[in-house]
Amino acid sequence: MRDAEPKAIHLSDYRPPAWLVDKVDLDFSLHPSQTRVTSKLSLRRNPAGALGAPVVLDGDGLTLVRLAIDGKPMAGPSFEATPDRLTLAHPPADAFVLEIETLVDPTANTQLMGLYRTSSNYCTQCEPEGFRRITYYPDRPDVLSVFTTRVEADEAESPVLLGNGNLVESGKVDGTSRHYAVWHDPWPKPSYLFALVGGRLAKISDSFLTRSGREVELGIYVEHGKEARAGYAMDALKRSMRWDEEAFGREYDLDVFNIVAVSDFNMGAMENKGLNVFNDKYVLATPETATDADYSGIEGVIAHEYFHNWTGNRITCRDWFQLCLKEGLTVFRDQEFSSDERSRPVKRIADVRALKAAQFTEDQGPLAHPVRPETYREINNFYTATVYEKGAEVVRMLKTLLGEAGFRAGMDLYFERHDGEAATIEDFVASFADATGRDLSQFALWYAQSGTPVLTVSGAWDAEAGTYRLDVAQEVPPTPGQPTKKPMLIPLALGLVGPDGRDQPLALGNVPVENGVVEVSEARQSFLFTGLDARPVPSLNRGFSAPVNLVSDLTEADRVFLAAHDADPFNRFDAIQRIALEMLKTGARTGSLPATEALVTAARAILADTTLDAAFKAQALALPGEGEVARELAKDVDPDAVFAARKTLRLAMGTALEGAFATTYSAMAATGPFSPDASSAGRRALRNLSLDFLAVTGSAEGIARAKAQFEAADNMTDRITALAVLTQHEVPEREAALQAFYDRFERDALVIDKWFTLQAQIAAPGTLDRIKDLMLHPAFSLGNPNRVRSLVGAFAATNPTQFNRADGAGHEFVTDVVLTLDGKNPQVAARLLASFKTFRQLEPVRRASAERALRKVAETPGLSPDVADIATRALG
Ligand code: 0A1
Ligand code: ZN
């Protein structure tokens, strides 16, 4: 066990490692409960490290069997071994080989960190600190070594044996039922990128020819019988490999690239060098079992992990404070890939929706932290929306500021300078500064200051002078540990839309504004736009050029105008969303919704606009979620009032636009066989949005339409949306449809997850009891992270009225699950607990109940460091 109350670790305390590992030879003898691990470390004193330092290796719950130095067994006082540390106070020389034998029990490993079993296969997860659960090692990302791994196992139990890099040898172990494989990875890497897999797996194979002519063998390993479901993932992999060559000049660097899909995994996937391990949710898809969102998720995650090969693996992180160096950049890269493969504006809208839902809420609550934190107690809790999604926004802003060519020059220099190294955010920013000659010191505040900046903008039109003055004020709100902030450098993309709906020229003091981006760098600043013929409507923060909360003096009429005419599709979307959001806020605050005509008119125009694609329409017309309304209200939130306001607005829109939705529903019907491409998915999204609005009154006709679609669907998107519509209504069709769905997909865990989620999301008082029953269902298991997330996670994160029940039963239930789960899988438990991060914005009764539940957790003895850290910070 690790220290239950770990000390805070500070970025400012970073010191280079005292010892380096030139190479490491690992030998695994796999066994369900007693796997023997022999490690031979070629240790060398680091000339840049602390003088005369002992050798101190990390461990976590290890059992030491044997130690040897340069082949000679060690004994007694020459070393000190605890489960968590191995210390050689007096190393024999400045370079020597240390041989360590440990025993580990993969079957008992329910944390899913280190070596564990999933569906009776063996697999590993080492990021961030899992390798120390396998063997003693300097388990920090700035110790890079060349790994050779021999894996041996019973051949019948584990016919497949995989490791990092290239396969160099394999064979039978004479006279036994065992066999072995030796894998060699020529690229020095930190221990968190180590992986091995052993088990009974089926393989789908393909190949890829890199642009310099290297033939790469591609393999995706899945459970037997699921081979046909991995085709889309393989296709996404090949497209990712090509894209990275074209967009970033990055080629793959080994002869083999393998992916293994496992069903028990704490996160989405892992970029181990040459051997990615995936949550099978991000690999397996067929039209019958996967939604369009699943397909795009697979494409995005496959790309993400593949892109890590350069941004994360070839250039890794010096320490875990630099996590955003690989994650923010790699998310940016996967977003760009999906934008190129699909529709750029629609991808941007989806990404910003997700950013606001997850990251803006994080930034506004007690768990707020900088993109690059400066202190942590438990690094597992920093795989956050801020590090990933805001980290990607920062890279995107860099590109906006430097332009396409400047950005590429900076990336090229970064790769050239730091290939093979463990780098920092300073190294990254310096590459762009040096490649373009720009001073980026103010920009770098984006990495250091937490909190979402508020940009307050107002305009003044001078008809006589033909000028429009934009007054901009910025403020970054206080966040934990950061009471005061400095002004940020904010790239604000904008346009001035004339009365004819077209962009007017954008010039400051008669000098055209390059790329339509002005730079806000001061607390208060004015921009005087010249040479205008008529009063413009400003279209601000186009394409969401900066992750800020924008407060403007635009009227509802201005927004209706922008929703109809803005040349920037993101801002067309944003204008209509803002109209709805303001109405919902008023509705939730006062109990009565303002007049809906403007919104209905704007929505009608969007539906009828033949120049817009269906996916865009579906995004524009999907009302802001309850979470977004709550976040905008920011305090004294009553989730029932938010729900009621939203329901009233949905009813008003559904009724007023019934004809238009009915027409759209028919017009968007499939014209051919299922295809997961973006345009077909967009048509399904718009059709399903129409279905939802058509059923919003719960009319017999609406329910019948949903039931008919549920029964006739030839793909999961159509089937599950119809089922979602049915489950949100208190109708007899609901239980029958849920049962039919269960019977049909009983044997398909990933689909049963959707079944759990739909029931967890029902906004009705019976839901909590239903969930408690479902936890006893044979298909449910606390040991499987996907199951936990699909039921309890979905409840806490996406059912605000029931999770925040006024009687406190929702809060109590979730914290009880957290406490039970903590003994099994602390990482998943901590993530679940983090759904309390918005509790301070609730009205007093619910706030008190959430606080009580959190205190109960915080006061429980024997908590994992993961859960203790979240509880403490959430209570702040
Ligand atoms: N590097 C992975 C994320 C990841 C982090 C921790 C894990 O284990 C607990 C697993 C995956 C990524 O960004 O995809
Ligand atoms: Zn990543």
Protein described:
The chain is of the alpha+beta class and 876 residues long. Helices cover 40% and strands 21% of the residues. It has 26 helices and 34 strands. An 8-stranded mixed beta sheet has the order 6-5-9-3-2-12-15-14, with no helix packed on it. A 5-stranded mixed beta sheet has the order 17-18-19-21-20, with helices on one face. A hairpin with a 2-residue loop joins strand 10 (114-118) and strand 11 (121-125). The model has no long low-confidence stretch (mean pLDDT 97). The structure holds O-methyl-L-tyrosine and zinc ion. The site of O-methyl-L-tyrosine has 13 residues, from strand 20 and helix 2.
Helix and strand arrangement:
Blueprint: E1 9-10, E2 19-29, E3 35-45, E4 55-58, E5 63-69, E6 72-73, E7 80-82, E8 85-88, E9 95-104, E10 114-118, E11 121-125, E12 145-154, E13 160-163, E14 166-172, E15 178-189, E16 196-199, E17 202-209, E18 215-222, H1 231-248, E19 256-262, E20 269-270, E21 275-279, H2 292-307, E22 316-317, H3 323-341, H4 344-363, E23 375-376, H5 385-418, E24 422-423, H6 425-436, H7 445-448, E25 454-462, E26 467-475, E27 490-497, E28 503-504, E29 507-508, E30 511-512, E31 517-520, E32 524-529, E33 537-540, E34 549-552, H8 556-565, H9 569-590, H10 597-608, H11 614-621, H12 626-633, H13 639-656, H14 658-667, H15 678-694, H16 700-712, H17 716-727, H18 732-745, H19 749-760, H20 767-774, H21 785-798, H22 800-803, H23 809-822, H24 826-833, H25 844-858, H26 865-875
Parallel strand pairs: 2-12, 18-19, 19-21, 22-24, 25-34
Antiparallel strand pairs: 1-23, 2-3, 3-9, 4-8, 5-6, 5-9, 7-8, 10-11, 11-16, 12-15, 13-16, 14-15, 17-18, 20-21, 25-26, 26-32, 27-28, 27-31, 27-33, 29-30
Helix pairs in contact: 1-2, 2-3, 3-4, 3-5, 4-5, 5-6, 8-9, 8-10, 9-11, 9-12, 9-13, 11-15, 14-15, 15-17, 16-17, 18-19, 19-21, 23-24, 23-25, 24-26, 25-26
This protein binds O-methyl-L-tyrosine and zinc ion.
